[in-house]
Amino acid sequence: MVNKSANTFDAAARSLRMTVTPALGESNSLAAEQVRVIAGVLDFYRDRAHHEYPRKQCEFRTYLALAERLSGHEKVDHTARSLLADALDNARRTDRLAVPEYGQLDRATDEVTRAIAGIVRAARTTDPATGAEVSRIVLEHSRPLVEMQRSWFLPQGVDPDPHTVPPLRSLLGAETATRAH
Fold first, then answer.
1. Mapping DSSP to helix (H, G, I), strand (E, B) and coil, where does residue 164 land?
2. How far apart are CA 82 and CA 110, in angstroms?
3. Helix segments in the chain, DSSP class H
4. For residues 95 and 179, is the Cβ–Cβ distance under 8 A?
5. Which pLDDT value is given to residue 1?
């Protein structure tokens, strides 16, 4: 089935601009401004709709790789390691699916990120060296996510150095092709 999300976003934004804005008139400038903002958000998602699933996969696989890397820290609290192991088992099952459902990617990503946060908290209380090592690994694995987010939000015009942002398609294509088995 063809995804019609872009058409839906476009129709909603057009309706706001062509029907709601004129109905507000000049008397309610705050409401008119909010309509412009909402229509802009709808335009943004219209233009990004076809990248949404690859973006979810990119985030999922990046967090999966980070969780895999953190899973070897034996000094960290047993409970945190156990939660990470369970999250990794579920994430690996999701990753083995040919095409995981959108919601399944969200759930697996949420579970893995919560487990990663638990490892980070536990590492900080273990000893300074372990805390520093875990923090370094997290920062190292966060770079691709930061680049993807910069590229994702580039059309909003808030990036301080937009000419250094790689194209979204190149970031998603490389990550989508990389499986973290």
1. helix
2. 16
3. 5-15, 21-24, 29-48, 52-70, 78-96, 102-126, 128-153, 168-177
4. yes
5. 57
pLDDT digits (tens, 9 = 90+) for 56-67: 999 999 999 999
Distance from C-alpha of 109 to C-alpha of 103, rounded to nearest angstrom? 10
Residue 154 to residue 163: CA distance in whole angstroms: 10
- Tokens 């990663």 correspond to 116
Give mean pLDDT in consecutive 10-residue pieces for the chain, a chain of 181 residues: 80 92 85 92 91 93 96 90 97 94 94 97 92 95 94 92 93 54 31
Residues shown for the chain: 181
Phi, psi torsion values for 158, nearest 5 degrees: -105, -5
Residue 119: burial class (beta carbons within 10 Å; 0-12, 13-18, 19+): buried
CB neighbourhood size of 124 (10 A): 15
What pTM did the predictor assign? 0.82
